[in-house]
Amino acid sequence: MAAALSFFLLFFFTAPVISWRPWPDSPRNATADLFDGSKKYEGSSEFVKMKYHMGPVLTGNITVYPIWYGAWRNSQKRIIREFISSISAAGSRPPSVASWWRTVQQYTDQTGANISRSVRIGAEKSDRFYAHGKTLTRLSVQSVIKSAVSAATRPLPVNPRGGVYLLLTSDDVYVQDFCNNVCGFHYFTFPSIVGYTLPYAWVGNSAKLCPGICAYPFSVPKYIPNLKAVKSPNGDVGVDGMISVIAHEIAEVATNPLVNAWYAGGDPVFPVEIADLCEGIYGTGGGGSYTGQMMNDGQGATYNMNGIRRRFLVQWVWNHLVSYCTGPNALDH
User: What phi, psi does 326 have (nearest 5°)?
Assistant: First the structure.
């Protein structure tokens, strides 16, 4: 009875940490207007107190285990796989995804050990038959992960110390709160459901459901007629939009895997994490509703970072050493 009660309290009084998308037409604030031209403004604030709460961070080699739920084309999988592989690809052309990860690496645990530089893709699991249905709750998300680690054939390894279980849902799957300014979230699995405590993240393909929210700026809401979408770098609006959310969640799992490590604010139920503070900022001058300065390739596609062979648009993350958002494509003034 006590175990059941503790699970009830854990479920109803905690919630997965979400990656939200600001509405593209949100009004600019006065601070954004005042500091719009400053390289060091991007999300900066002397009021933000990013603190370490003594919990573990991912200092050992990080392995991402993709779980492909629903109908995924091979071309879509290749885009996501290359992004994850690019995190540790130090030889990529600057500004690079690997350089972006260096900001995440600056976070440490209580021994002073840094977040790992090594992020690689591990074993993968696919469920193209929607075994848990096309509508998932936050609890059934964990059931999908349980199926992946307990499968009769080729189960995913159980890796609680360095594993990130990345559940990716196809564009015909709805997850609880999806599109209600929620594009992804991360948390840890409950032993009562999965059998283990495993850091995980969920990110959905919004192409059919809400691309104007979760694939912005590659898509814009229809009710804003004068706002023009930009061209995505890999020719897939939904997946290109997922990339920044995947980056957001992996960065936060690494720095706050059990929701008791790095976050701002005094409420661990609703922590403000290193990517939350920089949501929607992709370049110099970003803030308010402005994405910041990005780059265009020869075909007119918009990006801000280079991977191994592809280009990506990835949001910046909070640098706690200087108290502002940073990214490898920052412009000097």
Answer: -135, 155
User: Do β-strands 199-204 and 163-169 pair in parallel, antiparallel, or remain unpaired?
Assistant: parallel
Question: How many angstroms separate the CA atoms of 288 and 149, rounded?
Answer: 41
Q: How far apart are CA 111 and CA 159, in angstroms?
A: 22
Q: What is the pTM of this model?
A: 0.89
- Contact between 52 and 220 under an 8 Å Cβ cutoff? The reply is no
Neighbours of 198 (CB within 10 A): 25
76 alpha carbon, distance to own chain's centre: 17
- Residues 45-102: tens digit of each pLDDT: 556 789 999 999 999 999 999 999 999 999 999 999 999 999 999 999 999 999 999 9
Name every residue whose Cβ is closer than 8 Å to that of residue 128 and which is 6 or more positions away in sequence: 68, 70, 71, 72
Note whether 244 and 251 are within 8 A (CB).
Answer: no
CA distance 203 to 211: 13
Nearest in space to 212 (alpha carbons), one of 222, 204, 202, 225 = 222
